[in-house]
Amino acid sequence: MANKQSKNYIGFVNDHSGSMSSLASAAARDYNTNITAIKDAATREMLDTVVSVIGIGL
Asked: Domain of life of the organism in this record (predicted)?
């Protein structure tokens, strides 16, 4: 029997509402750091990874 490859499903919600304006820079930095870490881990571990991003408060 062939090994079934693991698959990751990851979701982000990006809040662009006015209440987040003071945190926008830090939130963008953290988001980019997370995306890079996910990409690197998926490549390193050969994981099929699906990332979904939803924007709110646009």
From this structure: Eukaryota
Quote the tokens at residue 42: 């998926």
- 45 to 6, 42, 48: CA distances (angstroms): 10, 5, 9
Host domain of residue 46: 7-56
The pLDDT tens digits of the residues spanning 2-57 come to 567 789 999 999 999 999 999 999 999 999 999 999 999 999 999 999 999 999 99
Q: What is the tally of structural domains in the chain?
A: 1
In a domain, 13, yes or no: yes
Could you give the CA distance from residue 15 to residue 26 in angstroms, rounded to a whole number?
Answer: 12
User: 45 in a domain, yes or no?
Assistant: yes
Cα 26 from chain centre? 15
